[in-house]
Structure formats: structure tokens, C-alpha cells
Amino acid sequence: MIWFVALGGAIGAAARYGAGRLALRAGLPDFALVTLGVNVLGSFLMGIVAVWLVRRGVGNAQLSLFLTTGVLGGFTTFSTFSLDMMRLMESGRLGLAMAYAGSSLALGLFAIFAGTWIARGLFP
After folding, report:
1. For 42-85, how does the pLDDT look when each residue is reduced to its tens digit (9 = 90+)?
2. Are residues 116 and 51 in contact, defined by beta-carbon separation less than 8 angstroms?
3. Whose CA is closest to 98, among 109, 85, 115?
4. Residues forming the annotated binding site for Na(+)?
5. What are the residue boundaries of the structural domains of the chain, listed by start?
6. DSSP string, 10-55
7. What is the model's pTM?
8. How far apart are CA 14 and CA 1, in angstroms?
9. Phi, psi dihedral angles at 77 (to 5 degrees)
10. Which of 23, 55, 77, 97 makes an SS bond possible with 123, Cβ 3.0 to 4.6 Å?
């Protein structure tokens, strides 16, 4: 089973790296925006995948581990969020750090609920 998680994690981490590269090319002004975007998108996709796995009766443990723990776990990142927070705080941007923390939580929760809601309509 560990190989399913490892393969998924490699795919998710590569996708996160790609998102960061695209953001740099697009000239996004702040590193934390990329982490926020990736985490919100990952939360949205987690809602969809979780409902899909349950509603479609996909009882395959390997597929579940591959998609949730592997791909989406590798794509989203709490450790980078923590590093972003530390950098913002150490640079004296406490207001931005608190806004980043609050928006990460609020948007992440909104995204997983939205993904779940959409998936429930797609996979009755």
C-alpha cells in the first residue's frame, strides 16, 4: 500500500511545484498566495474525491490512498503554510500573517464544502 501513497505523493508534489513555477512566470507578487491557492484547490478536490469514492462505491483502498493521502496530500502543504507564516511574522507583517491564516482556514473550509456539494450533485 505504501507504493500507492508514494506514487500519489510524487504526483501531487510535482503538481504543487508546477503551480509554483506557473505563479512565478505569471508574476504573482507574494509567495504565500501560491500556497493559499494550492491548499484551497486541494481542499476543493478533496471534497469531490471523498464524495466520489463513497457514492460510486469505490471501496478500493489503494485508489483511496493514492488519491487522498498521496496525490492531494502531496499537493497541499501545511508545512509550507507554516513556513510562510513564520516568514511573514519575522518580517514584521503580522497583519498580513493573520489575514493569511484566517483566509487559509476560511477558504479551505469553504472549498471542501463546495467540492462536496458539487460532487453530491454529480454523483447521486
Report:
1. 999 999 999 999 887 766 888 999 999 999 999 999 999 999 99
2. yes
3. 85
4. 73, 76
5. 2-122
6. HHHHHHHHHHHHHHHHHT-S-HHHHHHHHHHHHHHHHHHHHHHHHH
7. 0.90
8. 20
9. -155, 115
10. 55
Average pLDDT over residues 97-112: 97
Give the Å distances, CA to CA, from 109 to 1, 14, 49. Answer: 29, 24, 15
Task: Tell me the per-residue pLDDT of 4-42, one tens digit each, with 9 for 90 and over.
Answer: 999 999 999 999 999 989 988 988 766 788 999 999 999
- Write out the three cell numbers for 32: 504565500
pLDDT (0 to 100) of residue 28: 78
Q: Which residues are annotated as a binding site?
A: 73, 76
Residues near 74 by beta carbon (within 8 Å), at least 6 away in sequence: 8, 9, 10, 11, 12, 13, 15, 16
